[in-house]
Design a protein that fits this description.
By secondary structure, this protein is an alpha/beta fold. It has a single domain, classed as Winged helix-like DNA-binding domain superfamily/Winged helix DNA-binding domain (Arc Repressor Mutant, subunit A), CATH 1.10.10.10. The chain contains 3 helices and 5 strands. The strands form 2 sheets. Strands 2-4-3 form a 3-stranded mixed sheet. A two-stranded parallel ribbon has the order 1-5. The longest helix is centred in the last third of the chain and has 20 residues, at 62-81.
C-alpha cells in the first residue's frame, strides 16, 4: 500500500467532540472524523467549493477528495442515525496558517 500524501488544511478545529445529550456518556459509542475529512466537509458544504477547487487547495487528486468526502458523509450519517459521538482528530495533514494582516 502506498503511503498517504500529505493533505494541506487551513482550518484547525482544535479539540472538538460532539455528543448526543439524550444518551448517558458511558453508553455512547463514537466515530472519529479525520482532520482531512473535516476540512473537505467544511470546504464543500460551507465554503461552497467544488471538488476540483478543494483538490487544488489541499494539494491532492480530485478522486481522493471524492473518497474523503464519501467517507466523511458515512461517518457523520452513522453518528446521527445511530446516536454516536463525533470526535475530530488525526489524519495525515499539514496545517497551513494564514497570516492575519
Amino acid at each position: 500500500m502506498r503511503p498517504k500524501k500529505i493533505r494541506w488544511v487551513t482550518c484547525e478545529p482544535g479539540e472538538r467532540c460532539f455528543r448526543p445529550q439524550c444518551k448517558p456518556e458511558k453508553e455512547l459509542q463514537g466515530v472519529v472524523l479525520n482532520l482531512d475529512e473535516f476540512e473537505v466537509l467544511r470546504l464543500s458544504h460551507l465554503a461552497g467549493y467544488d471538488q476540483a477547487m478543494i483538490a487544488k487547495q489541499m494539494r491532492i487528486h480530485q478522486s481522493t477528495i471524492s473518497r474523503i468526502l464519501n467517507s466523511a458523509h458515512k461517518k457523520v450519517t452513522d453518528a446521527l442515525v445511530n446516536i454516536k459521538a463525533i470526535k475530530i482528530e488525526g489524519g495525515c495533514c499539514q496545517i497551513v496558517r494564514k497570516d492575519k494582516k
